[in-house]
């Protein structure tokens, strides 16, 4: 039962006469990297046509990181890119086209939607809404999009993705995910969320050396603890709780969780670690802020050849999928098979759009 004020029978009804029918299931399109660009930045915008086919999603960002003076230029730049770039967005696009509109309380959000939907709505796959606080924000966008889609004669609904970047948004995460059949997924907004929660960090995503646990102190023969001794510390993940909540809320509603931005562009190693934590916990992708983060995201969010080799062996060994077998000294059963099928299915989806990956998965020997 969707956590919405609409009854179950109305949940999938279009919200405006003439609007396209809402989707019953969110398509599982690969979206390992959602690559952000500022459409008002001419150097960045010039690179977009050649990036089509090299990244799963290109996202024209209109919100934070675009100067207030450039908001109009960014919106117009995105319209031009959406109109003129071959292979970008829409059902036949090789790379999806997303946008992040300005926040709903800003002076720009309404014009973002009323401009983009008629101009490039047929190309826009997903609209990311920042700073979503609760289901009411999704309901507002949902109805407005239906009206604009009806007027533009669009044949397919534009999906909506919410960024969790306020404490209220996190507290309402389940109702946000279930607020509309348009909901495609969630991303973490670690910088705004940290500020809203009054966390004491100053970074965009990633860990903090002060957030740690320390090994117990050694004790002397008389049992006294030597708290001054050298002890190993282990840095902890500040984002574990939020990502885990997002993953559960998304899985419950059949939509997709994503990590978000990693602002230390130079630290490609920690970036990969943070992305991998999210992948292992259940996220399907992340953001890329700089071209060099695309390769990191594509690598991390594609199952490794070793994982697929193992997963296929378990599937083969399990025969009809029931019971328990021993493989390499480990017990495999109905539930470990299900985990392996998650990986095998993901590999198939990715191989369908990534020829290099397909080659690697095809080369895996049986047995
Ligand atoms: C980090 C920056 C300033 C470094 O920009 P740079 O120019 O210093 O980097 P560079 O290494 O010198 O750039 C090399 C080349 O790549 C180009 N380039 C560089 N970046 C891109 C790009 N993204 N897409 C396409 N091209 C790009 C750049 O123009 C340059 O071209 P050139 O060789 O012709 O001179 C720059 O990469 C950038 O502005 N990235 C996007 C930042 C962004 O979108 N931030 C908002 C998302 S994070 C967020 O909002 C938080 C959140 C969720 O809301 C919350 O946690 O609360
Ligand atoms: Mg933000």
Question: What can be said about this structure in brief?
Answer:
Helix content is 41%, strand content 14%. By secondary structure, the chain is an alpha/beta fold. A hairpin with a 2-residue loop joins strand 11 and strand 12.
Commentary on this structure:
The protein is α/β, with parallel strands linked by helices and 367 residues long. The protein has two domains: 8-206 and 235-301, TIM Barrel (Alpha-Beta Barrel); 307-366, no CATH class. Helix content is 41%, strand content 14%. The chain has 13 helices and twelve strands. The chain has helices at 42-51, 71-84, 109-120, 135-152, 167-171, 173-177, 190-197, 240-253, 268-281, 291-300, 305-317, 334-351, 355-362, and strands at 33-37, 57-61, 96-100, 124-129, 159-164, 183-188, 212-214, 233-235, 256-258, 286-288, 324-327, 330-333. Strands 9-6-5-4-3-2-1-10 form an eight-stranded parallel β-sheet. Helix 2 runs parallel beside helix 3 (109-120). It is globular, with a radius of gyration of 22 Å. The protein starts with 32 loop residues before the first strand and ends in a 5-residue tail after the last helix. The mean pLDDT is 96.
Ligands in the model, by name, code or SMILES, are: Citramalyl-CoA, magnesium ion
N to C succession of SSEs: EHEHEHEHEHHEHEEHEHEHHEEHH
Number of strands: 12
- CATH topology label of the largest domain: TIM Barrel
Shape: globular
Order of strands across the main sheet: 9-6-5-4-3-2-1-10
Structural class: alpha/beta
Q: Can you summarize the main beta sheet?
A: 8 strands, parallel
CATH class of the largest domain: Alpha Beta
Q: What's the CATH H-level homologous superfamily of the largest domain?
A: Phosphoenolpyruvate-binding domains
Rg to the nearest angstrom? 22 Å
- Per DSSP, what share of the residues sits in E-state strands of 2 or more residues? 5-15%
Instruction: Determine the fraction of residues in helical runs and give it as a percent range.
Output: 40-55%
On the 0 to 100 scale, the average pLDDT is 96
Stretches where pLDDT is under 50 for at least 5 consecutive residues are none
